[in-house]
């Protein structure tokens, strides 16, 4: 049976590694991690994945919401935001990208 392939976009390496481990234990395949929004946007055409876990605040010029908007222009991949930010402005911006979910950190 084919495992669901997940890309993790998280600039905190320890969190990215923890997510990859948890995903593996749950039967998913964490295929790659990106720390910058612009990096995943530049590579998304050459990556096969089923879902993206996207942090809102990322290293680099592009935050996760902007990266999600650019990815949506190229591919129809479900994006789940993971964020410690729950303010209404951030949440409303994220909603414009039609995410599959918006989960707040810390999470179980």
Secondary-structure content class? alpha/beta
Q: What integer is the average pLDDT?
A: 93
Hey, roughly how much beta strand do the residues contain?
15-25%
Strand order of the largest sheet: 2-1-3-4-5
What oligomeric state is this?
Answer: single chain
Number of helices: 4
Largest sheet: 5 strands, parallel
Shape: globular
Give the helix level as a range of percent: 25-40%
Order of helices and strands: EHEHEHEHE
Rounded to an integer, what's the Rg over CA atoms?
13 Å
Straight-line distance between termini: 26 Å
Unreliable spans: none
Q: How many DSSP-defined strands? A: 5
Task: Give structural notes.
- This protein has helices at 13-25, 37-43, 64-74, 88-95, and strands spanning 5-9, 29-34, 51-55, 79-83, 101-104.
- By secondary structure, the chain is of the alpha/beta class.
- The mean pLDDT is 93.
- The protein has a 5-stranded parallel β-sheet with strand order 2-1-3-4-5, sandwiched between helices.
- Helix 2 runs parallel beside helix 3 (64-74).
Q: Notable features of this structure?
A:
108 residues; alpha/beta; 5-stranded parallel β-sheet; 5 strands; 23% strand; globular
Please give a quick description of this structure.
The protein is α/β, with parallel strands linked by helices and 108 residues long.
